[in-house]
Amino acid sequence: MAELRGPVEHLTMAERTAIGRVARADVPRSVHATWEPAASRPDPVALLEEQGESRVPELVPIRYGRMLVSPFTFYRGAAYLMASDLSNIPSTRQVVQLCGDAHLSNFGVFAAPDRRLVFSINDFDETLPGPFEWDVKRLVTSFEVAGRDRGFDTKQRRTANLAVLQAYREAMDDMAQMRTMDLWYTRLDIDDIAAQMQQQLNRTQQKRFTRNVAKARTKDSIKAFDKLVRVVDGQPRLVGDPPLIVPVGDLFREQESRDVEAAMHEMIRSYRRTLPGDHRHLLERFRYVDAARKVVGVGSVGTRAWIVLMLGRDNEDPLFLQAKEAQASVLEPYLGKSRHANHGQRVVAGQRLMQAASDVMLGWLRTDGVDGVSRDFYIRQLWDGKGSALVDLMEPSVLTIYAKLCGWTLARAHARSGDAAAIAGYLGSNDRFDQAIAAFAERYADQNEADYAALKKAVDTGRVTAEVGL
Fold it and tell me: Which domain holds residue 320?
């Protein structure tokens, strides 16, 4: 049931802008430059171990192994650590729907319902309302960490970091001036981005961009079927690649497998009820065939994730869904509990609010596992034109272009849920906020490297176990 709210106050543009400017007195923009770990700062490895307690035990070492590839991959899995740190420094009261993990690798392209590729945030596992600058700090720091990982010098990294911030600040000001419906529908189509890239990239970079977009266009259920399925006795079956992909039939004993298959049918019926009527009708044209547990991402490793194969007309009409466990947001200990009792619904609601276009199969459910524990999940298509930036191949100039795209996109997401005029009023027209956050990013990247070293030491001393190369 939708949340019932009281009367909504409608202030003038001048009043909303003034709210942001007045907020500078409580939290000056220069304050955001500071970062110094408190004496009582929690042990970073202990926080990671705390997260591991609710995850699949045999998969947790894979998570540590992926985080230990570099400080960059460590940062991808360290959203909980950063949330803890951000909770102990001054923050504004300008509340938006936070992504919660606005890392540069959590932006990318996907197919909108009109089948055009759009660029947006694509990971909402940690979404929750909170102060807008938490997302901004995490995003800019991810560029600083990525720049270090690529071997860029201080000037090159700072150029990219400031590009994020300038794009965010200027976009927020633009969006504060937009008509309400125009703001709601504005988005970045890949064709518009491609037109811009023609003027900013050299020939080699343009070819790489074109190949990456072309690859994204082919990532759909047909491509997934070719890669993940083989036909056994005339029946399509998911191919195992343990421990990263383990079909239901290999994961459980025969009776348990039958129980899980029955549970899958019930899960699909439950999930179906969370879809709008027309999308529910579409889903009902497909039947369940097979499922497998799949290891995904870096920070998410160890949470339960399933890929589900469904078929429509025949074996050449597949639909792949991903059911991903939704645990409590890493922000909840510091920003309060979600208003949604189901964390899958929390993720879906946050995604629909922050994205200009969302997957037509996006829904949620709660189900009991074979261990009797009730867990929340959200469901979406596995592959639907999804593509990510190739950060490890980016030159400094390309990283700066990408920084501008991410900064604009985050501003658009925040403007949909928060008060763009008030945030723009706080940010102002000069670069004081930009310079402060850029300074924070450099200092927090040092902290990230120290935390990475702490995890490495924990593995070296046998405190935790890491599986490398998976």
Answer: 221-381
pLDDT in tens, 133-173: 999 999 999 999 999 999 999 999 999 999 999 999 999 99
> Please, what is the Cα angle at 84 between 78 and 87, to 5 degrees?
135
Q: Does some domain include residue 321?
A: yes
Report how far residue 175's alpha carbon sits from residue 419's, in angstroms, rounded to the nearest whole number. Answer: 10
The mean pLDDT value for 119-123 works out to 96
Asked whether residue 166 is assigned to any structural domain, the reply reads: yes
**CA angle (61, 258, 238) in 5-degree steps:** 60
- Report the C-alpha gap between 102 and 29 in whole angstroms: 20
Is 4 within the bounds of a domain? no
Number of helices and strands in the chain (H, E): 19, 14
The answer to whether 308 touches 224, Cβ cutoff 8 Å, is: no
Is the residue at 173 inside a domain?
A: yes
**Distance from C-alpha of 124 to C-alpha of 380, rounded to nearest angstrom:** 12
Examine the domain organization and report whether 235 and 312 are in the same domain. Answer: yes
Nearest in space to 433 (alpha carbons), one of 204, 215, 244, 166: 166
Count of domains forming the chain: 2
Average pLDDT over residues 207-221: 92
* Residue-level pLDDT at 5: 61
Query: Can you say how many angstroms the Cα of residue 351 is from the centroid of all Cα atoms in its chain?
Result: 9
376 and 231 within one domain: yes
Tell me how far apart the alpha carbons of residues 229 and 217 are, in angstroms, rounded to a whole number.
20
The answer to whether residues 334 and 203 belong to one domain is no
- Taking residue 274's Cβ as centre, other Cβ atoms within 10 Å add up to 18
The three-state secondary structure class of 70 is coil
Alpha-carbon distance 265 to 56, whole Å?
23
Burial (CB count within 10 angstroms: exposed 0-12, middle 13-18, buried 19+), residue 329: buried
- 355 & 405 share domain: no
> At which of 320, 354, 381 does a domain end?
381
The predicted model gives 55-75 an average pLDDT of: 97
Total-model pTM:
0.95
Q: Which residue from 464, 440, 445 is spatially nearest to 454, judged by alpha carbons?
A: 464
* Domain co-membership, 139 together with 262: no
Residues 423 and 289 in one domain: no
